[in-house]
Amino acid sequence: MATSKKDIRALTKEQLRNFFVEQGDKAFRGNQVYEWLWQKSAHSFEDMTNISKETREMLENNFVINHIQVDQMQRSSDGTIKNAVRLHDDLIVESVLIPTPTRTTACVSSQVGCSLDCKFCATARLKRMRNLNPDEIYDQVVAIDNESRLYHNRPLSNIVFMGMGEPLMNYNNVIKAIDKITSPEGLGMSPKRIVVSTSGVPKMIKKMADDEVKFKLAVSLHSAIDEVRTSIMPFNATFPLASLREALQYWYAKTKNRITYEYVVWKGINDKRKDADALVEFCKFAPSKVNIIEYNPIDDGEFQQAQSSAIDMYVNVLEKNHITVTVRRSRGKDIDAACGQLANKS
Ligand code: SF4
């Protein structure tokens, strides 16, 4: 339930230590509470068993812990799990656990809904309500880590920011969440196991390069021809391919990190040889990898998965040009958990 008390997890460790000093207590108490909040993911002050009852009551009077609640968990026949996550203001986002034989990946949301309007995406049909706070992003990861341990007997190994929302439109909170996820005081995960996937916001890609982030970058490209890309991702009219490419060149010059492109091939939209040639041309400036992702129709509309011969054509053209390519089958289709399907339908 919404409340006017401050969310204690909006405080830094230093602010928490100062708070206790102001209360006439020891700064060290701040460290203890911080550990409960992040490392132990306490849902309530009651859980903090090494903190005195009086201190817990004092915290209760001053703060709330706006922990997410997993409202509904659906398990697919292929082991994929989709969580409908309720936020403190009753809005819902979704996150997904994707298991393979060698890894367990969390696909997390960064916004409630999305302000971009990609024509093939179910999330685009939801109005953007607000950005997620760092703790709300962090909690999704913790929930999936717990489910991974419970249902797959291993901890979470990878994270992709590919759920609801455009992560670079909520940059500061995504960065704060990743700081917590990678910190030894949080989950202690390697940033190399985290991928931030963007539809391509040039200014923010340059900022990531300037900030020397350690996680990986993926770009949902889907077409390297402006006219086609604008028809399926209308914001491309504002940020055309030339500006995206310029930002990616800047990124590569600074980070020397290979760029991954996410790419769906749709029947009659981008399934011709000229589309594959344009992709090769676009990728040339830096070491690149293309993930061709199987599409999951969100209705009977214009977006349908291309013939397998079109996928083969792409693979041939890319490989001939020495560009690494993988074809990724989609997971969790029976529970609408696959790429582009997250739309709070559960
Ligand atoms: S594909 Fe990503 S950026 Fe585009 S509308 Fe969907 S959630 Fe937003």
Automatic annotation (TrEMBL):
Reactions that this protein is recorded to catalyse: adenosine(37) in tRNA + 2 reduced [2Fe-2S]-[ferredoxin] + 2 S-adenosyl-L-methionine = 2-methyladenosine(37) in tRNA + 5'-deoxyadenosine + L-methionine + 2 oxidized [2Fe-2S]-[ferredoxin] + S-adenosyl-L-homocysteine; adenosine(2503) in 23S rRNA + 2 reduced [2Fe-2S]-[ferredoxin] + 2 S-adenosyl-L-methionine = 2-methyladenosine(2503) in 23S rRNA + 5'-deoxyadenosine + L-methionine + 2 oxidized [2Fe-2S]-[ferredoxin] + S-adenosyl-L-homocysteine
Gene Ontology CC entries for this record: cytoplasm
Active site: E94, C339
Localization annotation: Cytoplasm
Binding site for [4Fe-4S] cluster: C114, C118, C121
Matching InterPro entries: Aldolase_TIM (IPR013785), Methyltransferase_A (IPR040072), RlmN_N (IPR048641), RNA_MTrfase_RlmN (IPR027492), rRNA_lsu_MTrfase_RlmN/Cfr (IPR004383), rSAM (IPR007197), rSAM_sf (IPR058240)
Keywords per UniProt: 4Fe-4S, Cytoplasm, Disulfide bond, Iron, Iron-sulfur, Metal-binding, Methyltransferase, rRNA processing, S-adenosyl-L-methionine, Transferase, tRNA processing
Presence of keyword S-adenosyl-L-methionine: yes
Gene3D superfamilies documented for this protein: 1.10.150.530, Aldolase class I
UniProt GO MF annotations: 4 iron, 4 sulfur cluster binding; metal ion binding; rRNA (adenine(2503)-C2-)-methyltransferase activity; rRNA binding; tRNA (adenine(37)-C2)-methyltransferase activity; tRNA binding
Enzyme category, top tier: transferase
Cofactor: how bound: Binds 1 [4Fe-4S] cluster. The cluster is coordinated with 3 cysteines and an exchangeable S-adenosyl-L-methionine.
Pfam families in the cross-refs: Radical_SAM (PF04055), RlmN_N (PF21016)
Cofactor(s) the protein needs: [4Fe-4S] cluster
EC number(s) recorded for this UniProt protein: 2.1.1.192
Domain Radical SAM core: 100-334
Chief location bin: cytoplasm
Residues annotated as binding S-adenosyl-L-methionine: G165, E166, S197, S220, L221, H222, N296
Entry keyword Methyltransferase: yes
Function: Specifically methylates position 2 of adenine 2503 in 23S rRNA and position 2 of adenine 37 in tRNAs.
Family named by the database record: Belongs to the radical SAM superfamily. RlmN family.
Protein name per Swiss-Prot or TrEMBL: Probable dual-specificity RNA methyltransferase RlmN
Organism: Neotamlana laminarinivorans
Lineage, opening ranks: Bacteria, Pseudomonadati, Bacteroidota, Flavobacteriia, Flavobacteriales
